[in-house]
Amino acid sequence: MPRPYPLLAVALDGLGWHPAAWRLSTAPADAPFTPGYWAGLVTEAERGTLDLVTVEDSLALQSTRPDGPDGRTDQVRGRLDAVLVAARVAPLTRHIGLVPVAGTTHSEPFHVSTAIATLDHVSQGRAGWQPRVSFRRSEARLFGRREVPELRPDQLDTPAGAALLADLFAEAADVVEVVRRLWDSWQDDAVIRDVATGRFIDRDRLHYVDFAGRWFDVKGPSIVPRPPQGQPVVAALAHDTVPYAFAAGSADLVFVTPADAGHAAAVVAAVRAAERAAGRTGPPLRILADLVVVLGDTPSAARHRRDRLDALDGAPLTSDAAVVTGTPGQLADLIAEWHRAGVDGVRLRPAVLPDDLTTITRALVPALRDRGLYHDRYPGGTLRDLLGLPRPVNRYAPVPA
């Protein structure tokens, strides 16, 4: 059963999700490389009582090609590190969840675990992590540690493509498992700070994780005490069977990309089937549907904005997610329809930042409240509390008698 009201998240990326966003944005073109810009976006999202924000990231420069640079100079290129951006804005906010993207294919699990655990401490329990799998040869060559075969989108359904994707997601599952073990490697009461005896920690409450797998062996323990949430929220973007299986086995939250309400119901059914196939025993995945949004005061104004953006880019906007062009009221009705279809909420990708984000917080949220579909204040607590997820028991702690 879906929640009584839909979760509302926003995905932040550069100056917006339309390639020509920088041409129309009210922010300066270099704003995404400044801390004040990100602080403004996230504090605006919190003023609108949005549940969480995600911060996009990638290893290589943005490109219109499936793999490698495209040589274009008329679109935004370059970005700041998503985890560091989230850590920068965390002290400026109190309630909103912060979920940066960080890769699995070329990252060390130990480094990811300490970074996200630190973010959870800095934000007092509002951190999450969206793992990203990299199948691009150009990204592998940035590190020079491994060779990734070239894989075009039209090769994904070939035996070689399917095998490579299966390997990459299996590796990602191992990364998440190691990260989760490292988060648990300190018991909640490991730091005792006993001045009388001179003991700062109880060494018996720190644990080796002793993970040995196909891609790496990790001894542990972490250098960061257990995060306030115990386990920060792990989110996954999933489009099809293999990513659904990864999300079912490794994540707490999944972003999906249905085309309409009917498709949303089918995707929810597919995700639940993947959970059963994985033997999932914990809480069911929270399912959020992604939508790219181009908003206006009237339907014609929204269409005019999209047409103008498309003309500036020289091509119609395309996306893996559905694109909604309309008013905040129309978007609120669509969110209600998709929520009835079974998704727990939506993650909106604003076409232009900060413009469409401001419309979301100051027009869409009131429209949802008018329909009885959104809260008017934060409930308090951690990101897990907000999502209705329990705090996990530490796997290494002794079971009480």
UniProtKB/TrEMBL annotation:
It comes from the Bacteria. It comes from Micromonospora rosaria. Gene3D superfamilies: Luciferase-like domain (3.20.20.30). Keywords: Flavoprotein, FMN, Monooxygenase, Oxidoreductase. Residues 24-306 form the Luciferase-like domain. FMN binds at D57. GO terms for molecular function: monooxygenase activity; oxidoreductase activity, acting on paired donors, with incorporation or reduction of molecular oxygen. InterPro entries: Diverse_substr_monoxygenases (IPR051260), Luciferase-like_dom (IPR011251), Luciferase-like_sf (IPR036661), NTA_MOA (IPR016215). Belongs to the NtaA/SnaA/DszA monooxygenase family. This is FMNH2-dependent monooxygenase. Pfam families: Bac_luciferase (PF00296).
